[in-house]
């Protein structure tokens, strides 16, 4: 996608630097800063501190982290150490483990002297695959938006939650890919963008949509149900950090409440789902998915643009305790369907296995 007319991916390999470069997302939407990642510790820190964020992007970043490790030491011990260090960074997004498993399995079958080049090639492959997957998700989601547009006057009103945009992936985004493609196809569109406390990731979605010219309005997290009651939302599309075999959806905290409001108001609730985000080994999302609990300071303090630059302020009384669960689980019964790179299916084991029979069989 483009920033001020210049094409970007959220990460890219610099031949000149012989290193990965990332958009440091902690400073968005106020400042575009590029970081060169040179050590395994820097890779791990980039994931933990959310310099990179979003399940697909975390997986791609980890793949490049393994490639870096193999360039320094291609031994079995170094491969295992890199896997463990990166796997420990964030527990909820399944793409992280998916990418690490893919590299470990492929590289473990090679002689150490072949691992450096193979690891970097596989990291490039994972990044490019993500772009293709997300573009395909957008093409299928475009059909949904086109069908709604044909039945109403005025723009199609879509509600989003968190940021499942191009900077949460390598490019295009998951939930935003249908929006970009609909806008480019000339479909009248308006997006309600949830702020998504505590890190206000909706501001990133607004920055993205604004850069692409997509009409949108930034709203408080608790406004979604109100807008649905008044017929101002035609469709909800969110991303996801992990989907279970039976279709439970783990996504940014607050997604469950949007799904409840959507069901109560008869609003379709779709999840944009790249297949690497399906955890075929897990069935019950509430019981089996570990939920990351992050630093309470993200709740008690807020970062934003000030006259003196980008700063942080406390929004709670000093000493007030806070809790910061980063994700929640939406049961499959509340999900209208999944938009995947192979088509749209119902949120169930039958629906998922119908589109991905080989993947389901391998994990059975």
UniProtKB/TrEMBL annotation:
Reactions listed under catalytic activity: 5-deoxy-alpha-D-ribose 1-phosphate = 5-deoxy-D-ribulose 1-phosphate; 5-(methylsulfanyl)-alpha-D-ribose 1-phosphate = 5-(methylsulfanyl)-D-ribulose 1-phosphate
Keywords linked to the UniProt accession: Amino-acid biosynthesis, Isomerase, Methionine biosynthesis
An example Gene Ontology biological process: L-methionine salvage from methylthioadenosine
Binding site for substrate: 53-55, 90, 201, 251-252
Superkingdom field: Bacteria
Pathway: Amino-acid biosynthesis; L-methionine biosynthesis via salvage pathway; L-methionine from S-methyl-5-thio-alpha-D-ribose 1-phosphate: step 1/6
UniProt-recorded Gene Ontology molecular function terms: S-methyl-5-thioribose-1-phosphate isomerase activity
Record flagged with keyword Isomerase: yes
Site features described as Transition state stabilizer, chain residue numbers: 162
Alphabetized Pfam families for the sequence: IF-2B (PF01008)
The EC number(s) this enzyme carries: 5.3.1.23
Gene3D superfamilies given in the database record: translation initiation factor eif-2b, domain 1, Translation initiation factor eif-2b, domain 2
Active site: 241
Protein role: Catalyzes the interconversion of methylthioribose-1-phosphate (MTR-1-P) into methylthioribulose-1-phosphate (MTRu-1-P). Also catalyzes the interconversion of 5-deoxyribose 1-phosphate and 5-deoxyribulose 1-phosphate. Part of a bifunctional DHAP-shunt salvage pathway for SAM by-products.
PANTHER family in UniProt: METHYLTHIORIBOSE-1-PHOSPHATE ISOMERASE (PTHR43475:SF1)
Similarity comment: family membership: Belongs to the EIF-2B alpha/beta/delta subunits family. MtnA subfamily.
Protein name as it appears in the record: Methylthioribose-1-phosphate isomerase
Gene field: mtnA_1
């Amino acid at each position: 996608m483009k920033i001020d007319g210049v094409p970007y991916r959220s990460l890219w390999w610099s031949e000149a630097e012989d290193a990965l470069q990332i958009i440091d997302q902690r400073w968005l939407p106020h400042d575009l800063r590029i970081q060169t990642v040179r050590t395994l510790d820097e890779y791990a820190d980039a994931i933990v501190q959310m310099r990179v964020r979003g399940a697909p992007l975390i997986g791609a970043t980890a793949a490049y982290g393994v490639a870096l490790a193999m360039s320094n030491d291609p031994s079995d011990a170094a491969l295992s150490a890199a896997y463990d260090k990166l796997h420990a960074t964030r527990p909820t997004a399944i793409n992280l483990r998916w990418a690490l498993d893919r590299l470990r399995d492929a590289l473990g079958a090679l002689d150490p002297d072949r691992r450096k080049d193979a690891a970097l090639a596989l990291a490039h492959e994972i990044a490019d695959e993500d772009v293709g997957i997300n573009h395909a998700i957008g093409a299928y989601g475009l059909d949904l938006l086109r069908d709604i547009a044909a039945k109403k006057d005025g723009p199609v009103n879509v509600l989003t939650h968190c940021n499942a945009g191009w900077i949460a992936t390598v490019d295009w985004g998951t939930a935003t890919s249908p929006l970009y493609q609909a806008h480019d196809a000339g479909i009248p569109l308006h997006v309600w963008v949830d702020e998504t406390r505590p890190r206000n990731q909706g501001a990133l979605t607004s920055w993205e949509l604004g850069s692409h010219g997509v009409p949108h309005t930034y709203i408080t997290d608790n406004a979604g149900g109100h807008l649905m009651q008044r017929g101002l939302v035609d469709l909800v599309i969110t991303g996801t950090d992990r989907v279970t075999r039976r279709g439970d959806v783990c996504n940014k905290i607050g997604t469950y409440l949007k799904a409840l409001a959507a069901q109560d108001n008869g609003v379709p609730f779709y999840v944009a789902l790249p297949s690497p985000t399906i955890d075929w080994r897990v069935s019950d999302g509430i019981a089996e998915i570990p939920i990351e609990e992050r630093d309470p300071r993200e709740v008690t303090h807020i970062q934003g643009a000030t006259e003196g630059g980008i700063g942080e302020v406390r929004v709670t009384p000093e000493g007030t305790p806070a809790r910061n669960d980063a994700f929640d689980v939406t049961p499959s019964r509340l999900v209208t369907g999944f938009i995947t790179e192979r088509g749209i299916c119902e949120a169930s084991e039958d629906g998922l296995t119908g589109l991905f029979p080989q993947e389901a069989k391998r994990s059975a």
